[in-house]
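hey so u asked for the seq, here:
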Amino acid sequence: MILAGVVALMVVKALCVYGVARLARSSHADAMDRALLMAQGGEFAFVLYSAAASAGVIDARTNANMTAIVVLSMAITPLLLIPVPALRQAGRGRTARGRSHRGTAPHSGDRHGPNGADHQHDAADVRSHLHRDRPGSGGRGRV
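ran it, C-alpha coordinates below
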Protein backbone atom coordinates (compact mmCIF):
# COMPACT_ATOMS: atom_id res chain seq x y z
CA MET A 1 0.00 0.00 0.00
CA ILE A 2 2.82 2.43 0.81
CA LEU A 3 4.65 1.71 -2.44
CA ALA A 4 1.45 2.28 -4.42
CA GLY A 5 0.98 5.56 -2.54
CA VAL A 6 4.50 6.69 -3.45
CA VAL A 7 3.93 5.90 -7.12
CA ALA A 8 0.51 7.57 -7.13
CA LEU A 9 1.80 10.70 -5.37
CA MET A 10 4.78 11.09 -7.67
CA VAL A 11 2.95 10.35 -10.93
CA VAL A 12 -0.01 12.63 -10.19
CA LYS A 13 2.20 15.46 -8.94
CA ALA A 14 4.61 15.13 -11.88
CA LEU A 15 1.72 15.23 -14.36
CA CYS A 16 0.29 18.34 -12.69
CA VAL A 17 3.67 20.11 -12.62
CA TYR A 18 4.34 19.14 -16.25
CA GLY A 19 0.91 20.43 -17.32
CA VAL A 20 1.34 23.75 -15.54
CA ALA A 21 4.84 24.18 -16.98
CA ARG A 22 3.58 23.53 -20.50
CA LEU A 23 0.68 25.95 -19.98
CA ALA A 24 3.32 28.50 -18.97
CA ARG A 25 4.96 27.81 -22.35
CA SER A 26 7.99 25.94 -21.03
CA SER A 27 9.64 23.58 -23.48
CA HIS A 28 8.99 19.87 -23.17
CA ALA A 29 12.50 19.33 -21.73
CA ASP A 30 12.12 22.10 -19.14
CA ALA A 31 8.66 20.85 -18.17
CA MET A 32 10.05 17.32 -17.74
CA ASP A 33 12.90 18.64 -15.58
CA ARG A 34 10.44 20.49 -13.36
CA ALA A 35 8.11 17.51 -13.15
CA LEU A 36 10.93 15.19 -12.08
CA LEU A 37 12.39 17.65 -9.59
CA MET A 38 9.06 18.50 -7.99
CA ALA A 39 7.39 15.08 -7.99
CA GLN A 40 8.19 14.32 -4.36
CA GLY A 41 6.11 15.26 -1.37
CA GLY A 42 7.13 18.27 0.68
CA GLU A 43 8.06 18.84 4.30
CA PHE A 44 4.83 20.74 4.93
CA ALA A 45 3.00 17.43 4.62
CA PHE A 46 4.56 16.41 7.95
CA VAL A 47 3.05 19.47 9.61
CA LEU A 48 -0.35 18.82 8.07
CA TYR A 49 -0.36 15.14 8.98
CA SER A 50 0.67 15.90 12.55
CA ALA A 51 -2.04 18.55 12.91
CA ALA A 52 -4.64 16.21 11.40
CA ALA A 53 -3.61 13.43 13.80
CA SER A 54 -3.73 15.83 16.76
CA ALA A 55 -7.20 16.98 15.76
CA GLY A 56 -8.39 13.40 15.38
CA VAL A 57 -9.00 13.72 11.64
CA ILE A 58 -6.64 10.82 10.89
CA ASP A 59 -5.42 8.03 13.15
CA ALA A 60 -1.81 7.30 14.06
CA ARG A 61 -1.51 4.50 11.49
CA THR A 62 -2.72 6.71 8.64
CA ASN A 63 -0.34 9.45 9.80
CA ALA A 64 2.56 6.97 9.78
CA ASN A 65 1.65 5.58 6.36
CA MET A 66 1.27 9.00 4.75
CA THR A 67 4.50 10.20 6.36
CA ALA A 68 6.29 7.12 4.99
CA ILE A 69 4.93 7.87 1.51
CA VAL A 70 6.32 11.42 1.60
CA VAL A 71 9.68 10.32 3.04
CA LEU A 72 10.10 7.62 0.40
CA SER A 73 9.13 10.01 -2.40
CA MET A 74 11.82 12.41 -1.15
CA ALA A 75 14.39 9.61 -1.05
CA ILE A 76 13.51 8.30 -4.52
CA THR A 77 13.60 11.64 -6.35
CA PRO A 78 17.41 11.96 -6.53
CA LEU A 79 17.59 8.38 -7.81
CA LEU A 80 15.17 9.25 -10.61
CA LEU A 81 17.47 12.07 -11.70
CA ILE A 82 20.54 9.83 -12.16
CA PRO A 83 19.64 8.64 -15.71
CA VAL A 84 18.55 12.10 -16.93
CA PRO A 85 21.93 13.23 -18.37
CA ALA A 86 22.32 9.95 -20.27
CA LEU A 87 18.77 10.19 -21.62
CA ARG A 88 19.38 13.78 -22.69
CA GLN A 89 22.59 12.77 -24.44
CA ALA A 90 20.75 9.94 -26.21
CA GLY A 91 18.08 12.42 -27.30
CA ARG A 92 20.72 14.74 -28.73
CA GLY A 93 22.23 11.84 -30.65
CA ARG A 94 18.90 11.13 -32.30
CA THR A 95 18.51 14.81 -33.17
CA ALA A 96 21.99 14.94 -34.69
CA ARG A 97 21.07 12.02 -36.96
CA GLY A 98 18.23 14.03 -38.48
CA ARG A 99 15.22 12.80 -36.56
CA SER A 100 14.48 16.08 -34.83
CA HIS A 101 11.11 17.17 -33.53
CA ARG A 102 8.79 17.80 -36.51
CA GLY A 103 11.78 17.49 -38.80
CA THR A 104 12.79 21.16 -38.46
CA ALA A 105 14.28 22.56 -35.30
CA PRO A 106 16.53 20.68 -32.92
CA HIS A 107 14.86 18.91 -30.02
CA SER A 108 13.53 21.35 -27.41
CA GLY A 109 15.79 19.74 -24.82
CA ASP A 110 18.76 21.28 -26.64
CA ARG A 111 17.49 24.75 -25.73
CA HIS A 112 18.51 26.12 -29.10
CA GLY A 113 16.36 27.89 -31.63
CA PRO A 114 15.76 26.78 -35.22
CA ASN A 115 18.98 28.44 -36.39
CA GLY A 116 21.02 26.76 -33.63
CA ALA A 117 21.44 29.96 -31.60
CA ASP A 118 21.54 29.47 -27.87
CA HIS A 119 18.64 31.29 -26.25
CA GLN A 120 19.62 30.64 -22.64
CA HIS A 121 20.48 33.61 -20.45
CA ASP A 122 22.70 33.32 -17.48
CA ALA A 123 21.55 34.64 -14.11
CA ALA A 124 23.85 37.67 -14.25
CA ASP A 125 22.31 38.84 -17.54
CA VAL A 126 18.82 38.48 -16.14
CA ARG A 127 19.68 40.29 -12.90
CA SER A 128 21.34 43.18 -14.73
CA HIS A 129 18.36 43.48 -17.07
CA LEU A 130 15.91 43.50 -14.16
CA HIS A 131 17.99 46.06 -12.29
CA ARG A 132 18.07 48.43 -15.28
CA ASP A 133 14.28 48.30 -15.68
CA ARG A 134 13.46 48.84 -12.03
CA PRO A 135 11.32 51.94 -11.31
CA GLY A 136 13.49 54.75 -10.02
CA SER A 137 16.55 53.55 -11.91
CA GLY A 138 16.34 56.52 -14.23
CA GLY A 139 14.98 54.44 -17.09
CA ARG A 140 18.39 53.14 -18.10
CA GLY A 141 17.94 50.22 -20.42
CA ARG A 142 14.22 50.69 -20.97
CA VAL A 143 12.96 49.89 -24.40
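The longest helix spans residues 2-23. Confidence is low (pLDDT under 50) at residues 98-134.
lmk if thats what u needed
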